Amino acid sequence: MLTLLDVYAGYGGGDVLQGLNITVEPASVTCVLGPNGAGKSTVLRVISGLIRPRQGTVLLGSTRIENLTAPQILELGIAQVPQSGALFPRMSVRENILLGGYLIRRQRKLLEERYSAVAELVPLLTQRPNTPAGNLSGGQRRMLEIGRALMLDPAVVLLDEPSLGLDPKSLAAVTALIRSMRDQGKTILLVEQNVRLGLALSTHGMVMEGGRVRLTGTASEVTNHPEIASLYLGALQPQSSDTTQPPTPKRAPPTASGIRQGNP
Ligand SMILES: Nc1ncnc2c1ncn2[C@@H]1O[C@H](COP(=O)(O)OP(=O)(O)OP(=O)(O)O)[C@@H](O)[C@H]1O
User: Fold this and answer.
1) All domains in the chain, ordered by first residue
2) How far apart, in whole angstroms, are the C-alpha atoms of residue 182 and residue 233?
3) Which atom of ligand 1 is nearest to the CA of 34?
4) What is the pLDDT of residue 260?
5) For the whole model, what pTM was predicted?
6) Average pLDDT over all residues of the chain
7) What is residue 73's DSSP assignment?
8) Which of 42, 192, 198, 258 is most buried (CB neighbours < 10 A)?
9) Is 206 helix (H, G, I), strand (E, B) or coil?
10) Given ligand 1 and candidates 36, 159, 160, 209, which is best to mutate, with the most ligand atoms within 8 Å of its CB?
11) Which atom of ligand 1 is found nearest the CA of 160?
């Protein structure tokens, strides 16, 4: 269980997160929704230790992690896949992936076992291990970025906009990879502009606004919530099975009414 209690955090110009409360169940996939600037990526950065909260508590199980460093949090089993551009273009596929196993670099056998396990999910690792990352397509790079985060076999994976800029074929591959991670029982927090896709991949949904949780529910509750449907999924549109076309998110209105209100 991952829990954020009354978290305030920002970048020096004031708090972006304004008393955030979140509970994430083990082995769940939570899609974080909200308008631009709501603080979705900031939540991921707080959990992974890239930003230290000014106030509040972050718990992994019963362990407080809000004052730990990013490497310490990684070691506890929380890995973040940042938005794209996080690979070393001149290094090979294999070298990039091995960087994800830096903390276990001296345990050669374990490192190779992990490489093989990740290669099951990301075939590129066996197909083109020596190709420089800079020569890969956008979709292949995204697969590699996610694969690298799996090298420590994290219990919790934080994904920031995994579908961003992908063509339909790459999107299908990345979607399948996230589904495999979900089936392996990983706890996943997903920030996704493609709301329909994000909710389809998720067990839970959480809508943020102004640095707070506005409402939470199961993915189907959030999908079927009339306000969310009209804001993000296109009101009065029948649900399409085509999840590859991102809807245009609109800004949420200031008034709140929801399934379960956040920040109780
Ligand atoms: N590195 C940074 N330094 C200063 N301000 C930042 C930084 N990163 C984000 N912000 C600001 O924090 C606020 C929340 O940003 P965040 O990236 O968490 O939003 P978001 O909900 O993920 O939206 P988006 O979809 O636009 O990324 C925004 O006003 C943004 O300008």
Assistant:
1) 1-75+156-162+186-264 (3.40.50.300), 78-153 (no CATH)
2) 23
3) 21
4) 59
5) 0.88
6) 87
7) H
8) 198
9) strand
10) 36
11) 22
